[in-house]
Amino acid sequence: MQILAAANMQILAAANNKIATKYCFKATSHLKTTKGRMLASFTAYDKSPEVAATVQRACEAMRVNKQIADADVTECSMVELVAYDACPTECDGEISTVVH
Question: What residues contact 37, with CB distance under 8 A and at least 6 apart?
Fold first, then answer.
């Protein structure tokens, strides 16, 4: 899988127009305590860059969850969005959550 640095303009256009592209997008966000302890990771692959917003909403939903919030003050990292020319896994927008 090759990361497509040359496709930046197409990716930005797709994000602005909220359309799917021929590329696969991987979005990842991490839920951490303010002291840096990792609590959970959220990852999804989709043909639309809008998957970044979906992953961010999932992280925020867990952040406000009372059980997690009681443990320590928490924060979601900025979503990391990577474009691939082919998906390394199912490209259906389903979010994979790993609790650490």
Answer: 72
Which is nearest to 95 in space by CA: 26, 16, 49, 20? 26
Q: How confident is the model at residue 99 (pLDDT cuts 50, 70, 90)?
A: confident
97 and 58 Cβ atoms separated by less than 8 Å: yes
Q: What are phi and psi of 86, to 5 degrees?
A: -150, 140
Nearest to 76 by CA among 87, 61, 97: 61
Number of structural domains the chain divides into? 1
Residue numbers of the domain that contains 12 = 5-99
Q: Degrees (nearest 5) of the Cα angle 26, 32, 36?
A: 120
Distance of alpha carbon 24 from alpha carbon 31, whole angstroms:
24
As a whole number of angstroms, the distance between CA 24 and CA 1 comes to: 11
pTM of the prediction?
0.72
